[in-house]
Structure formats: structure tokens, C-alpha cells
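[Solved] Which block belongs to which protein?

Original post:
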Amino acid sequence: MNVALWCILIAIILPYVCTAVAKISGGYGLRHNHDPRGFLDSLEGLGKRAHAAQLNSFEVAPAFAAAVLVAHLVGNAELVTLNVLAVLFITSRLLFIIFYLADWATLRSLVWFVGMGLIVSFFVVSV
């Protein structure tokens, strides 16, 4: 399996990292599981931002996975190009999460746009 396909797995796992940060920052650790959605909705500060980063990560993962798979199926792009784009996307997502947690809204929005541009680029390089 190549790097771009492994990056899909990383994109699937990243939201759960954000969930762990949200739960830990909420003071209950990872064991508060009677009403996890209600608990996450009640968070403030860092925990609330981690939860928001989790939701955004869940939203973007399918688009990234689809872009990588379509690019592989079409087969017109070099594998190294797809791998580089995938690593750049994961890097943008890591920065997005860090900037979200740090409450740096402008930088967070900028790297969000970069990530979306990278998703589009999978389709562009496959033409």
C-alpha cells in the first residue's frame, strides 16, 4: 500500500485524537461515557475547540478519501505526486487542529483553505 492510502487511515483516526483531547480537557478523562455527546456539547474553552476540530475532521475525511481513491482509479497522475499531496493534506489537518486548539482562528481558516485546495488538486492532477 502506498503513502497516500495510508494517509486516508490517518485522516480517519485524527478526529478521535481530537475527541480524546476534548474529553481529557473536560476534566473527566476518557471514562465519561454515559452521555458522550451531551458531555462534549457542554464543554467550554479548549475542550469545546477540540470537539469542534473533531467535527470538522469527520466532515473532511470522506472528501479526502474520495479524492485519493478517484486519483488512484483514474491513474493519470504520478504516484509520487499523489503521495506528496496526501502528506501535505495530513500536514494541513495537523496544523488545522493545532491552530484550532490554540484558538488562532485566522491561521486555522488559512490552513483549512489549503487543505480544501489540496483535495481539489487530486482531481486536477488526475485529468
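(Second protein starts here: sequence line, then its C-alpha cells.)
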Amino acid sequence: MLLVGKTVLVTGASAGIGRATAIAAARHGADVAINFLGSEDEAASCVAAITALGRKAIAVAGDVADPATASDFVTRAAEALGRVDVFVNNAGICPFHAFLDMPVETFERTMRVNLHGAYFMVQAAANQMMRQGQGGAIVAVSSISALVGGEYQTHYTPTKAGVHSLMQSTAIALGRHGIRCNSVLPGTILTDINKEDLADPEKRARMAQRIPLGRLGEPDDIAGPIVFLASDLARYVTGAALLVDGGAFVNLQ
């Protein structure tokens, strides 16, 4: 029970890593606000799973690519749950596409969601934490793609490197206010973001064989490290990046 008495906000939390993180936070004693875009049924299901654990929960719809969504989400979460202690920036997209004919809109949409959205969401959460005057924790979901390239991810990898860099800089900017900022860098995790890319069983098996732990990741594999970074166990950890990839990055030979 690492988050008892805390209020946790998670973006992109109706499915995948965001959903797993929101529910894990509730299991550890937190009340949770989730941001979502898309399926209201999935958002309602996540809220139901949290309330079934005896915690409070709300779902707030909004496109993180719109800067106004950030202040709306944080304000409504604080009003409903009383405060903001932990903010998890998870929302992201990766529409796979070749580099040479990358559509401008695909590139710009990916930037607006993954990087611009992270910037304004983190800014809004940090301002709320400052107003409360008791510090807080911010965790951003970056990616192993911040460290390595991808032929069909030339629009995506720069955003994830940017999210990691954002956490490094905000760790400096917000440290004096008692706000810790860290990132997690997932490896290949089975979520909607890569469902089509990994639809081929042979490709999935080939990817799994490259991972020392012998399998692709699942959303719950990332939720645990996020809860750790959000908790007081990590009270002296800020500006750090935690690679959670089953050992894929180090397996170069």
C-alpha cells in the first residue's frame, strides 16, 4: 500500500498502460482521476474497477493535444478528489509510417499528442501541486524508443526522447518545490498502440526471442515501476529514467 492517502491523475487511462497504472494506484490506496479520449465504456470500466477497490475515481474526457484539456483535467480532478499528489503522463500515439512520405498531419498530430500534450499536462499538474504547497510526484511514460531508432517511427521516437528530456528539465525546475519528476521507458508492451504491428505471430515470436526474459511486456509490468516512482520509496529519486524492457536494450550481441 504505497499510495495511501494520495490522489493520482493518469492520462490516456481507459486502456493499456494507463488503465493498468490507474488500477494499480487504487490497489495501493490512492483515489484516481483518469483522462481519456475515445471509448466512454472503457473509461467507465476503469472507473468501476477502481471503485470496486474502495477508492474514489472520476473520468474526464479530453484530447491532450489541446492545451486547454490540461487545465480542465487537473482542475476537475482537484475539485472532485480534493488535491493532486501524483501525475502520470501516459497518453500517446504511434501511427506507424515510412519516413520518406510521412504525411504532415501524421507527424504533427503525433507531436501534439505525445510531446506538446505532455508539456502542458505536466505544467498544469505542477502548478496545482505548487498551490497546494506539499510537493508531489510526476511520472512520464517515455519509451525505449527514446534510446533507439525505428524505421517506421521517425515521428514517434523524437517525441519520446523529448518526454524523457522534459522530465530531466522539470526535475531541476520543480525540485525546489518538492516535486519529483521521473520517466519510465517501456520496451515492447502489448497494447493497442502496437496491436496491428504485432498482429503477425511470427513477428511477435521473433520480438520475444530478442528479449532476455523471453516474453513481450504487459501493461502491468509498467504499472509497478510507475507506482514505485510515485511513492515515498522513491523520495530521493528525481530526473531519473527507469528502463523497463525485459532486458531488450542491453541484448546487442
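Accepted answer:
You had them paired correctly. Confirming on the second one: The domain at 7-244 is CATH 3.40.50.720 (Rossmann fold).
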